[in-house]
Fold each of these.
Amino acid sequence: MLKQKAARAALDLITPKLTTSSIVGVGTGSTTNYFIDALAEIKHVFDAAVSSSEASADRLRGHGIHVLDLNATARVDVYVDGADEVNSARQLIKGGGAALTREKIVASAADEFICIVDESKVVDTLGAYPLPVEVIPMARSLVARGLVGLGGQPVWREGVVTDNGNWILDVHEFMVADPLAMEAAINNLAGVVCNGLFAVDAADTVLVAGAGGVNPLA
Ligand code: 5RP
């Protein structure tokens, strides 16, 4: 399983750097779930985890890993998470699991961001995967009109409520030529909480699992 191999490679990469005072940031999704399960093997090596979702926090606690609120720690040493798309600049689309806001917060707090993906996630241009945008519920239509103005086709992910009590719009037909500029433009729409472009907080390392093994994105 490629996702599992990427997760294992991340564990191998971070283990030598961890100390008993280290705080490990943990993302959300099926690839990250493999990482959480692997992390349990070395839970005595680091101090605690900070989680990007209630689901990951539950899984971490299920393994007996101490989960800290981000407000309770001055730093996060390393953050490990999956992605929906990755480009050659290590910029990402995230949020397929609706956890993008907390993911971006923990990624931003971390000294190092390691992204783990299988090779199907690597693209030339971000945007074939519909871009998730977390919105304040009362602003859903307003933000949707703003996203149309930016060139996209937003679709409400009906029935999904984020851990923060908000809603998700998925923006289709939205190839992103300039991720840094588009991340900022979407953030400027009133009612947007966060968008799934991780350009400011691009990954430091992307571990890509494929038929030839797991390799860092060049
Ligand atoms: C959740 C995310 C996930 O990292 C992304 O959706 C990838 O998920 P998976 O590892 O299940 O393919 O951003 O909000």
Amino acid sequence: MCGIIGYIGNREATDVLIDGLKRLEYRGYDSAGIAVLNGHGIEVERAEGKLSHLEAKIHKHKPKGHIGIGHTRWATHGVPSERNAHPHHVEDVVVVHNGIIENYSQLRKELIQKGCHFKSETDTEIFCHLINEELKKTKEIQKAIANALKKVRGAYAIVVLYAKEPHKLYVAKLGSPLVLGFGKKENFVASDVPALLPYTREVAYLEDGEFAVVSDGSLNVVDSHGHPVTKKKTHIAWDALMAEKGGYKHFMLKEIFEQPRVVEQTIMGRIQLGSTQLTLEGIPKLFGATGFPFKQVAILACGTSWHAGMVAKYWFEQLARVPTTVHLASEFRYANPLIDSKTLVISISQSGETADTLAATQLAKQKKAKVLAICNVLGSSLTRASNATLYTHAGPEIGVASTKAFVSQMTVLYLLTLEMASRKKIMSKEELLTKMEEIRKLPQNLETVLQKADAIKKIAKECVNASHFLFIARGLQYPVALEGALKLKEISYVHAEGFAAGELKHGPIALVDKGVPVVALIPPSETYEKILSNVEEVKARGAFVIAVGEKGDEELEEKADAVIGLPKTVYSLTPILYAVPLQLFAYYIADFKGTDVDQPRNLAKSVTVE
Ligand code: F6R
């Protein structure tokens, strides 16, 4: 949430800042701003709304200078407006901030009593005043910032520009992510790696409590006690092109179509032809050389990642016979959970920066559980807080609605299921080999699913004016139904709900009326007949039924109003295939409606506040 960028070097800072903010806009987009030191003083430009508004504003008068900071906002305190937009500026101090200051009301009262005048409703402006107050006691800006930080409670990633020290950026973090980028005679700081990719792929993640002073020639970091820290550089394999649209109308569509390649990358090197041996990094160390040392698994995640966790519960329990619970990270923290050193906690997060997932993971560690992260972002906070990480290798996901991350998470979780089943010796060699063979076919099968895009678009067009959608499924497909409903509501702003089909008659069927689209996921399975009966029930009440099932299923053709036929695979892998038509369905409905698909209202990609 909120994107931060800072630059110092020989380039025009404004260009780097605007370019970086474009790449970070998925983190928040209700206002944006930059501040540049131009040799005479500080120039601050801010605008309400998307970054394009700021660009239009500075088009004729571009701040000139070689050091600056920028911010794209997702409002927490104070409405989206120009005066609440960052950077915030008081006297010689300018600040951009991501996070939430929890004791902000108290601090604000105290500062007002001291005579400070607030120009915005944000918690961030507190920093500017606190630093200025400290500067009355010490002339050293670094000390003043450090002292100011001691007074705040909550989460922050901040970058400070100080007009009297025009060759340095001051950077600190607690709870919210910040990454340092190393260039030649130039350096960078940003909330997330995509902002840095056109300039450098050598990065280092700032840890909680660390403080960095960034100049064009150096990046000096100290820990919370003021001791120097040597940061280990990480080389990022993604390139800038991977984070661009590549001819697609939206990032979301591009990311949906990337899924066959993504799954190929996710499984690459992890399974070998004709072998039951899996190579999952970090697992032998975490599980031991043989066997499975845990009594239970507890999965922690939010949103789409939580849905991947729900699918994994079915797999872990049914294929590997491991008792599994799945928790919304935001609830887990306050539930006094029953976990201990015999629990394997699996924290799933695309970004690795979701505040609730991080906090729940910390709690799990306090309770002595071992933590395995399933994550897409190399070196992110979650991976650093975990005992081991299985990366999803999905590449940068920019569209706010998660698509390829979901499919890659499920793929990793399926591999992990086979690893557990194999270690517990409860799956025969033949079965393991069959399942691995089917995994290997996934990229090709996903290609075949994507060929249905035009047909799905036509079905979407028929439903575009509906204001309620139901998604129904049973068993393994139930979380996919929830995910289908989530995709639709978040990008097209219509009401959509997912239900376990057997629950319909316990209440939700009252929602069904003439023409209400009901998307039913019906792969061949032991509950096939049952869900067909549910289809009959909603049809009898006037629903427009869209069935997603196996290609050539004549019964579906007969019973449903529209059918999306997908390739045959083993039942356990169907969630990975069946998720994709629902992504396309949501995408086309949103696109027909003309909503902002990549940056839907009220959302942000990385939820770094609790
Ligand atoms: C929905 C979506 C969110 C995220 C959730 C968790 O499309 O993207 O529901 O899945 O905010 O984010 P991560 O996986 O980064 O922890």
